[in-house]
Write a structure and sequence with these properties.
single chain, mainly beta, 4-stranded antiparallel beta sheet, about 35% strand, globular
Length: about 425
């Protein structure tokens, strides 16, 4: 969910709901003039499609690409005044184009679930298709198979697990990462899990021509109340990168009541090609306990379902899959993603599906019923308009007051 620097030019498992830096701003975000007030308003754009749109990214404040179901890509070159369909190898297919990352001057990378990445280096005039081997399974947005071995009797939002390729982020126009999760990523103890990797991170350093699987921590070895050596599988659902090469990725799941509970994971890498490391509760800090850290105001180990890290120190996220959470809160971290303050109000009563942060203290969330919220101080979120009543699934910001959001029925809304 990188908002596009182009515009301006650990892991610790929390089981039974428990357990559990530096500075530098993301370039490319304009400020608020010191007043804390952001001018402008949201408007609805005509996308030219009725397919659900799941993500949007920009090469500049005027040039953006939105992606969605049935291999749909629509683009604008005039700040959203007009959107036109772009031909691509998956256009009209059953593939869901789920996430997109763009880098100036003309490179974009699109995830087609479950195993394909589309790449353009000419602003969408032409696209190439690359299939990643064993990137994960599951082409649908929801799949109750993730609950197998945990609590298959639970229905509703707990079944909104994500499978296959799930997110993509770029360090530069040539270097990008993609994360994927297989069903076993939602399983539980590695000792009893089916064979196969639960998750994977893939990196391209040649502009998307080839993708290499990266080394990631094999599992989780911290549980609330008793930190042992048994490893638990974990999913990777989101990734966020800075131009410095620092990236954070994470995910989590509720594995049922009893001996499992919640599993959360955040991993990090500081330079392209280096091994990914556990970020939350790394050795030798074990054991760690959620209550101890919360009592000291430090937050707790956590990983949202969608996250964005606008600086090396600050990360933000929203959660939509917990069976015990209304999904309308915002979590944030001030230590780079190790500890998170949980469940702060988002400024809306409906489910939050996406978050984008163009600056260290400026973030927007998008969610159901067309609701959008924002913060200009990194903590207090307020309503920021309702330009549509369709559910919104993706959002990106190219500056403090220039954002685009997309959703159901081909919905595109823009803020300028």
């Amino acid at each position: 969910m990188h908002p596009g620097r182009a515009a301006a030019a650990g892991l610790c498992a929390v089981l039974l709901a428990g357990c559990g830096s530096a500075g530098g701003a993301r370039p490319g975000a304009s400020g608020t003039g010191g007043s804390g007030v952001i001018s402008g308003a949201w408007r609805a754009d005509a996308s030219g499609t009725q397919q659900p749109l799941y993500a949007v990214a920009c090469l500049s404040a005027l040039r953006c690409e939105a992606v969605g179901a049935a291999g749909t890509i629509v683009a604008t070159g005039d700040g959203g005044a007009t959107w036109r369909a772009q031909a691509n190898p998956l256009q009209g297919s059953a593939k869901i184009l789920y996430r997109i990352a763009c880098e100036a001057p003309s490179s974009c990378y699109v995830i087609a679930r479950p195993d394909t990445i589309l790449v353009t280096h000419d602003g969408g005039a032409t696209w190439s298709s690359h299939v990643l081997p064993r990137a994960g399974a599951g082409a649908s947005l929801t799949d109750e198979g993730c609950l197998e071995g945990n609590d298959a009797g639970i229905r509703g939002r707990p079944a909104l697990c994500r499978l296959g390729l799930l997110d993509i982020a770029c360090v530069s126009a040539r270097i990008c990462y993609a994360v994927a999760t297989a069903p076993v990523g939602y399983y539980g103890p590695i000792s009893g899990a089916p064979a196969g990797p639960p998750n994977s991170i893939w990196m391209s350093s040649d502009g998307g021509t080839s993708w290499a699987r990266q080394s990631v921590p094999p599992g989780v070895e911290c549980t609330e109340g008793a930190c042992g050596k048994e490893l638990y599988t974990y999913p990777l659902e989101w990734i966020s990168c800075l131009g410095s090469g620092l990236c954070r990725a994470g995910g989590g799941y509720f594995g049922g009541c009893g001996a499992c509970g919640y599993v959360y994971a955040v991993v990090t890498v500081t330079r392209p090609g280096a091994p990914w490391m556990m970020l939350t509760c790394p050795e030798p800090r074990l054991p760690c306990f959620r209550k101890e850290m919360a009592s000291q105001g430090l937050g707790a180990p956590f990983a949202p379902d969608a996250g964005d890290c606008p600086t090396s120190a600050r990360c933000y996220g929203v959660r939509s899959t917990s069976p015990f959470d209304p999904g309308n809160g915002v979590n944030w971290s001030t230590d780079g993603g190790e500890l998170w303050l949980a469940g702060e109000p988002s400024g809306a009563g409906s489910l939050r599906n996406a978050i984008a942060c163009p600056a260290a203290l400026i973030c927007y969330t998008a969610g159901d019923q067309g609701t959008i919220t924002r913060t200009v101080n990194g903590t207090a979120f307020v309503a920021d308009g309702r330009p549509t009543f369709h559910d919104l699934y993706g959002i990106t910001c190219v500056a403090a007051a220039i954002c685009y959001a997309v959703g159901d029925n081909g919905t595109i809304v823009a803020r300028r």
